[in-house]
Amino acid sequence: HVQLVESGGGSVQAGGSLRLSCVVSGYAYSDGYCLGWFRQAPGKEREEVAVAYINTRSAKHGDSVKGRFTITQDNAKNTLYPQMNSLKPEDTAMYYCAAGPVMSWATYDYNYWGQGTQVTVS
């Protein structure tokens, strides 16, 4: 049974930083899989933040966060960390972690989703 648990959200002033984490359990490390971070603000479509293929250095960042957000991963802990710097009010959203077999921006390519963690930038 695959589970994803996000944490690290909170409230921060514009220009500040937050570090989210997504812990994955139930996925076989040897399978190789992709973890993605997406966000959704009220009344808006779900938007890509970053995706990474676990146990490799392959990662991509969404256009709206390039240069400000950086994805790192701890393969031993099956954890993906988006380090979010220079936060803007428009970064305010619920942030979701997802797992799936392919490295994709498409939400339908992800089989498993976490419950989300709220980020509020004022």
* Beta-strand segment tally: 12
What is the rounded distance between the termini? 37 Å
Structural class per helix/strand content?
Answer: mainly beta
Largest sheet: 7 strands, mixed
Mean pLDDT over all positions = 89
- Order of helix and strand elements from N to C terminus: EEEEEEEEEEEE
Unreliable stretches covering 5 or more consecutive residues: none
Gross morphology? globular
Strand content: over 45%
Put simply, the count of helices is: 0
Defining key terms:
seven-stranded mixed β-sheet; 122 residues; mainly beta
Secondary structure: elements and pairs:
Elements: E1 3-7, E2 10-12, E3 18-19, E4 21-25, E5 34-40, E6 47-53, E7 59-61, E8 69-74, E9 79-84, E10 93-100, E11 112-113, E12 117-121
